[in-house]
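Researcher: Last one for today. Full complex below.
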Amino acid sequence: MTAEAQGKRILLRGNLVGRRDRSPYAEVVHLSAAIEGGPADNAFVLVYRTGQARYVSWIGYFDIEYASRREPGAWEIVEPASPFQREVDWIPFGWDGTEYLPSIGDSVLKKTEVVQ
Amino acid sequence: MSTNATTTVQLDSAYEKGVIIQPRLPFINGIFDLGPNTLIASHAPHEHIREHLHDHLPHLHIRYGFEIPKQPLLGVNETALVVIMMIKVEHRVDCNPVFVALGPHNEGVCLRIADQDVHWVHNEDAAKNGTTHYESTGRRVPKGFYFAGFSTADPGERNIHHYTRESLLRAIGAGLRADQHFQATWRDPKEEPIEPYPVVIGLSDDTSPFFTFFELRPTVALGPS
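Model: Here's the assembly. Have a good evening.
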């Protein structure tokens, strides 16, 4: 996501389930209820340190564990989840495709085994 | 006579060891009352439905039925069921529970084995093994596609769960009929709808030396072709 991208300003409320401890630093939040004008119920979103947030296709802790296996040291699980609330720029599909986010199937697709 | 005597069973073929799973058309109407011959359906984002995973994103429903006929399960001490499905490289696929009936409010009743609902977890080793089986028949996974793989899981869907022979025999009984439902979406979420496409499914378990492959079509052909 580019630093210049601007989205709708929303108050994001959900549960913090994971963190990315490497650039681009981010937090993984699971929505337990829809936010009007923002993410849907049961969605997983990535909240960047820049204050921008977007959807990811992840569905649970398994995805964070998987990302951690692909990028050792880059991801941390928060379990049990803790309440999360922050004002963010909501850019649901703001992914510009240049950033790499591990997703199940990567090793079958023979992508880089470990991305630093 | 020893009370610990065991019987050694000689199998005539490696293919007698394992779980026989046969594909069927679904027998329970799916989400939004999709009928038994609608196996692939593309949806725009819609309101959240319980047990639905990607309803807020463009998604592709992939569904089929299966039958595990009554069988002796010779040579099976414990096993995890396996399913693989061939999808586009831009997509990921995730799974819903296995349904055996419709319950109150039209909600699916989950298949239970060994006193717990059957769940699935991603398994890339199963996908690679299934790909080897598929390609050993002379077929090739087309460019732009890959097999996603799953094994039966613990309720948290983080670890593979193996069922004992006894628990499988109890669940199968005189024959087990069930429906399975998966949802594919963009690996990197985007607004673009997903064009429906045929999906090859492979069913197996981690004891069987074979996969049963079949193809789901977005539009079922009626009449002679």
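The mean pLDDT of chain B is 90. Residues 16-214 of chain B form one domain.
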